[in-house]
Structure formats: C-alpha cells, structure tokens
Task: structure prediction
Amino acid sequence: MKKIAVKAARRGADRRSIISALFVILLGAAIFTGCSEVQRDPGRIYMPDMGYSRAYETYATTEEQKAELLSKGIHFSNTPVPGTMKRGELLPFLIEKDKIGDTTDYHASRDVKSPLTSMDTVEAERLYLVNCAICHGPKLDGNGPLYRGGDGPFPAAPAQFVGKAQYENMPEGQMFYSVTYGKNKMGSYASQLSTKQRWMVIAYIKSKQAAGKAAAAPAAGSSTAADSTAKK
Result:
C-alpha cells in the first residue's frame, strides 16, 4: 500500500510540474507576442473618421488652400462657426472679413475698442515675442530675424510699430482686424492666439508706442529750448 501511495504522489508531482512548465511557456509566449513589433490588423471600423482624427494645416487660411485640402478628403476650417464663441472667451469680434477688393469692414474696425480691463504685461510680452517678433522685431522696429534689414529670407519689410506714425496712430480695433483676418503678407493668427491673447498683444504694442512717444517728447523739447537759446 505504501508503494502505491508513493507512486501516486510522484505522479501528482509530475503533473503539477508539467502544468507549471506549460503555464510558464504560455505566459512567456504571451509576453513575447505582446512586446513584438508585429503590426496586427485592428479589424473593421464602423466610422473611420471618428476612430482616427484627420490632420489639419494650421496656416490653411486661403480658400485655395482649403480647396486643396478638401480635394484630399480633409475637411478643415480655421474659423469658428458664425454666431458661436468658446467658453471663457471675451466678447466676439462682430466685424466680418472684407471680401477681396473691399475695405469697408477694415475701416469700420477702427471704432472697436479693446474689452480688456487689465493685462498681464509679462505674458503679453511673451506672446508678442513668440508670435510677432520674428517679423516685427523684439524692439517693434520692423526688423525681425526673418527680415534683417532686407538680408533675411522674407523680402517684404514688416510693419514698424514704434517710430512710424502710420502704425502708432492705427486704432487698436484695426490692429485686431489685421491680426484676426490677416493683412497684406501677414496671415491670420486667429488659430494661434485666442481673442484675449490677440487683444493682449495689441495692448503690449500700444504700451510700447506710448513709451516711445513719451521718451521722444523730452528730447524734442530740449532741442526746441536749445534753438531758442541760440537765437537769443
């Protein structure tokens, strides 16, 4: 009886060893398969557009570019649906973009005032340096890295915000129109900067223009006084 019991115990131990070995082999195979670079077919997707988002081009602002994207099956518009605004946004800019050859809305934007009541100056400067200084220059002199006095890759001279009356006298609403819809060689920044951020950048530009005028006023006064003294 003892020999039978010993043999039964050995058979049970052998079975457990075999089962353990099979378990280890199966576990190793599962780990190896899961970590392999073999591309597996994910199966059929009922609505591919919902399963995989399509890429879009941030700077696709012209109708020609949008038509080109549409021909490739990419539906993209970088402007919000008319009459809508995102949560937390400032009051919408109600003036629409002029049609080609028309400047009615551009001139009407002169009457729009900034809704900002306060501003984070440090953040406004950062937004300007990141988005605008590459063309208009860190000093707002129209001589950014892309222009470099005409030696840069961009041939057209950017706007000189400080020291040029045309832009120093430009109303903030008209600046906002230009940043929102683009003007001349500059494209729209509506997809890069929120409404509040655009107003912050304009407020920063206006603050630098005011500081430039204040610094120029004493110099002009001194030269006038010197001329008067010389005449006497």
